[in-house]
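tool=predict chain=A
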Amino acid sequence: MQLAQRLEKVRAKLSERKLPALIVFSRTNIRYLTGFTGSAGVLIIGQDGWAWLITDGRYKLQSKEQTRGTSVKVAITRLTDKVIANRLKKMKVKHVGFEGRYCTVAFLDKLREQLKGTKIRLESVDGIVEELRAVKEESELAQIRSAAQLADKAFEYALKVIRPEMTEKELAWEIEAFLRTHGADAIAFPPIVISGERTALPHGQPSDRKLRKGDLITIDIGAISNGYCSDLTRTIVLGKPNGEQQKLYSVVWEAQRRGIEALTSNQKGKKVDSIVREVFDKHGLKKLFMHGTGHGVGLEIHEAPSLGQRSKDVLRPNMVVTVEPGVYVPNLGGVRIEDMFLVTDGKPEVLTNAPNPKKILSV
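tool=predict ok
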């Protein structure tokens, strides 16, 4: 889908909500709608066909190059509340939505001050652009597949270089360096490498702890390809696993299988999560699963839809989601297994293909 069509879809949503205009603050949403990747900018979209990208002089050439071929007009000026207010006045809009999630209270107060004496009313809105981003286009899927393949290769590389006495930080750096030198534009997040009892930390940061024989090791990797992210997690054992480690792993593996089977068009995200939790409940481990089952992946590493207990999302074809159950036992360790999937009308397509055996992988 061309950028112009994305803008038209936003305008259709504005029409549904009876909003003449929308102020987009999210840098990711601005990129999605205009192609502009600068670090400073505000996009104002009018329901009746106009759109203005406001940015500063640092991005004069970049903004015009990246928005070429779209109907977006670029204003190079100081990015202030006064500038935005003046643009709204010139466009003669009376009711304007804005992305409240991405606007500070301080900036909003200043903007409202600038609009005093006018009939312009501001309304905080959520999800207008994010709902569109949740369903991926073929061009987006190509980049996500590329990012997923990079994560797969990085994990396989980690298996080759991992060794006892290596620190968590050293292995994390090996993974990051591999990604940056093998095609990734960037890392989606700093690699997570945790070992031993520290694997009980769902998102622990790599430390100076040295890897030891018998350790559980959790490796969480994400790459970026042309702006699009991937997310992959594996838990392995350095050496031979013991019975408790294999038991935990087997339960998580079973929970992931059940979650994958539930991924289909029109399925509720909340239902997928509950199916995964049923497995942990059956094994008396439900309280040790401390996060949601999964999330959308795209231009951001965590985006719509959500597969969690409070999710209101319904899966649709061409959504990309993770399924990442985990259990975390204090003073013992934890296991998490995560893959990315493309939702279809039938069976989901797995996008990450790193080794994921039924028995825990030992290296």
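The mean pLDDT is 97. The radius of gyration is 23 Å.
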